[in-house]
Design brief:
149 residues, 2 domains, 4 helices, 3 strands, globular, IS701-like_DDE_dom, Transposase
Length: 149
């Protein structure tokens, strides 16, 4: 019985289950062109950089971020796992979180509510804003050549 060697795991293998197959291909095209794009990284500039690699309608590429079926939480989890896997085994993993209110106004904005704005509030004054409350969690990485993480 021959033992088959394990196929090497690619960097993007963790991200494939997050998307449907066509959306994943579009996502990879946009990520690759984001690395190569100079200047503002708008979707139009990314598609301009991708050139013939982004075949098909431009609108299908734009929908990757707005309407495509995907799980943002699973995408963030896959990215965090890949970042932690790249760290040395004895490295300390430091997580930093912040919550902020992003203003969105209008009659048809889904999930809009009135929130306490932590950036504008103090102990004596509470500032409130209409919009979406978002929590951002980041992994701080310490590089040997840098003084700060």
């Amino acid at each position: 019985m021959a033992i088959r060697p394990e196929t090497p795991r690619g960097f993007w293998d963790d991200f494939a289950p997050v998307f449907t197959r066509p959306t994943f291909r579009r996502f990879l095209t946009l990520v690759g062109s984001a690395i190569l794009t100079v200047g503002r990284r708008t979707v139009a500039n990314l598609l301009r950089t991708a050139g013939s690699l982004a075949s098909g309608a431009f609108s299908s590429r734009r929908r990757v971020f707005s309407q495509a079926r995907r799980s943002p939480l699973r995408l963030a989890e896959a990215l965090a796992r890949r970042v932690v896997d790249l760290l040395p085994a004895d490295a300390e993993v430091v997580l930093v979180g912040v919550d902020a209110v992003f203003p969105h106004r209008g009659k048809h904005v889904f999930g809009e509510a009135r929130h306490r704005d932590p950036l504008r509030s103090s102990h004596a004054f509470t500032a409130r804003r209409y919009g979406h409350k978002r929590v951002v969690l980041a992994v701080l990485v310490r590089f040997p050549f840098a003084a700060r993480p």
